[in-house]
Structures are given as C-alpha cells and as structure tokens.
Amino acid sequence: MENFTAYNPTKLHFGKNVIEKLPDALQNTGKNILLITGQGSVKKYGYYNQVIEKLQKAGKNIIEFSGIKPNPVVDDAEKAVALAKKNQVDAIVALGGGSVIDTAKMINMAYANDLPVWKIMKREVEPVKRIPLFVILTLAATGTEMNGAAVLQNHQTQEKIGYFSPLMYPDISFLDPTYTLSVPKNQTINGIVDLIAHSLEAFFSGGAVPLSDRFVAANILETFDYAPALLNDLKNYDLRARMMWTATIAENGTTMHGRTTSGDWGTHALAHHISLLWDTAHGETLSVMFPAWMKAMRPKIKERLQQLGFLLTGKSIKADETIAIFEEFFNKIGAPIRFEQLGLKSHDKQKLLNLWLKNKPIGMNIILDEKDYQKIISYL
Ligand code: NZQ
Ligand code: ZN
Fold this sequence. Notes:
With 380 residues, the chain is α/β, with parallel strands linked by helices. The protein is built from 14 helices and eight strands.
C-alpha cells in the first residue's frame, strides 16, 4: 500500500429536507451571496424557490448568475467572476448538477485570488485563498459535491480539462434525494454510467490495496442492484437515495486511498474530447469509451480485469468476461456503447483522433501513446 493522506473537509447533510439546515450553515458568512444555477430546471421544479426562501431567512443579499450549460465553459465562469467582483460577494451557493458546481468552484478560485480562470486550470498560476462554498446538489453523478475537482471547457484552446485543489472542497453540501426525483431518464442513465466510470478509474490506478478494491466492487455491485429498478421507477425516493450516495462515494476519496495515483482518468481524458467536439453528455461519452479503452488496454490490464471480475462475481472469469459485464450492463440500462449510437458518423472518428493527437490525453497510471489512440478508436 502506498502512503496517503486522507483529507475530505466537506460536511455533507444527506436526506429529506436537509435544506432546512441552510440558514444555520450560513450564519457565520458575510451578507452577499453569489447564487449559481443552470439553465432552468431548478426553477421549473421548485428547488430554486426553496433555496431563495432559506437565503432570505438567513438575511442574505442574493446576487444571481444563472444559465450555466452542461459541459460548462470557461467564459461563463469569467462572467460570473466579474459579477462577483462588482458585488463583492462573501460566499458562493451552487444549486444544480456537476456543471453548476464545477463552475462555482472555479469562480471561487478566480475571484478570491484575482486570477484568470483558465490560467488557474492550466496551472500557470496558483490560488492560495478561497471564500466559503455551499452546494445544493440536484443530480447524482459526478461526486463534485464532496471533492476538490472541477472540469471546464475552453473552445478557444479546444480543451476540456480538470483542475484539482484542496481549496475547492465545498464547505457544506446538501444532498436531498427528493431534489433528484425530477431528473429525466436519460440524465439518470448518464449519472449511473458516470459513477461506475469513477469506480473503474479508481480501480485502474496502480498499487495493491485490497480494501480500496473492495470499496470499488461494493459500489459497482450496489449500483447494478438498484439501477434497473430505479430506471423503471424514477420517482422512488429510496432508489434515488441509493444512487445519490453511490455517486458521492465513487469520487470522494473512499475508493482511492493507498493507490499510486488517485485514479487513472485516461478514459475520462479521452472521453472529454467527445463532449468538446459535439457537446455530448458526459455519461454518454463514458459508456462508449470505457469498454473500448478496456479492450484496447487488455494486454496491460488483463490481471486487473480478472481481479475485478472475481470481486464482482465471486468466480474466476476471463478478462474479456469482465469487460462484457460492463458493456452488457450499459446496454441493458439504455446507455450508448458504440460511437455511432451518439449520432456520430464513422468519419467523425478521424476528428476525434486528430484532437487526441493534438492534446495528447494520457492516463495517470496507464500512459497512452499514439498507437493506443488508434487501437481505442478501432474499438469505439
Ligand atoms: O441546466 P439545468 O436546467 O439545471 O439542467 C440540467 C442539465 O440539463 C439537468 N438537471 C440537473 N438537475 C436536475 C436536472 N433536470 C431535472 N431535475 C434535476 N434535479 O441535467 C442536465 C445535466 O446537468 P449537468 O450538471 O451537466 O450534469 P452532471 O452532474 O452529470 O455534470 C456533468 C459535468 O461534470 C463534469 C463533467 O465533465 C461535466 O462537465 N465532471 C465533474 C467531475 C468532478 N468535478 O469531480 C468529475 C466527472 O468525471 C465529470 O468530469
Ligand atoms: Zn466522470
């Protein structure tokens, strides 16, 4: 087992009506709150009004920035930073899914340190300060509610990249599964794929840590268990709660401790290029990319695939059979598993390959080269 530091400062309130705790949570922050939201779902389903009511009860001035799009862009973050500066905000409240929360994290870094968002993300400058960040999650998927990561796109530079800082863990996250009852079926499928992909990214890091491996397998088996029932019963609170908790656990450090790196993330880096080129939902890019990556990397990860297969089935199975478990599961829940199912043509694969060749995405544990890109493309 590798040395590690377990650090997760986020306090998480989970369950029905946890929003009631928001006014108390804000007691020691300043008056001016920057509220970040997406493209309208929170208003449509009433979560927005509940949050506004709590902010008013806490006596706050609300400065609002809405319209954050899925696959969020750096330009929106910069616009919100300008608004934050104009109003000298004291804290940020993010109400939404991963896109809203990730943008709020980067707004925080850029505003508190007076630095450009993209320079921070490219690690050309280093933030050292933060303001308080409170998160109200409406979509179970990314795990951003309890980690220090954010992902943004920049269309000028043709990149979609992640940034991690210990300064970006939310202070408090509010997870009421009731807020996810309105998530449509396709986004629910995307969230399920994403949390499985995060579990797999952890597993394909290096080092031998049986407990972290067992956490991965437990999270995947739990998801296999509730997912089909949830997709037939989207308003079921208990099934939504199970999904919400697995999504948080998949990327809050639980599955990463003691490994050589905190996940591999090669598959994510490759898949982000599909979102960048065609604005494809994050989950859809992963159900297509993970099986292809596993097939292409099979010679390097054969033993790990067998170990994962054993943890999932209790039997010694072949590497290919482990890959088939995931491909079949994604297919069963209605997630795309082939490039063409994303509405793309086979000639679009060349565009994707060209962008990989330009940006050179690599894993943190399994380093990819140009031959690997060709192989992965052939399995898409
Ligand atoms: O924009 P609104 O109107 O809010 O609608 C959203 C959006 O259209 C909708 N939605 C959210 N909550 C809803 C809801 N609709 C009905 N009811 C609700 N309760 O869902 C759509 C997708 O939202 P989005 O926030 O984009 O989804 P998700 O949470 O999957 O976030 C995806 C983003 O997170 C990044 C991805 O790359 C992508 O940009 N990731 C962030 C990570 C992190 N910070 O740790 C790790 C992940 O691997 C991932 O890369
Ligand atoms: Zn992801």
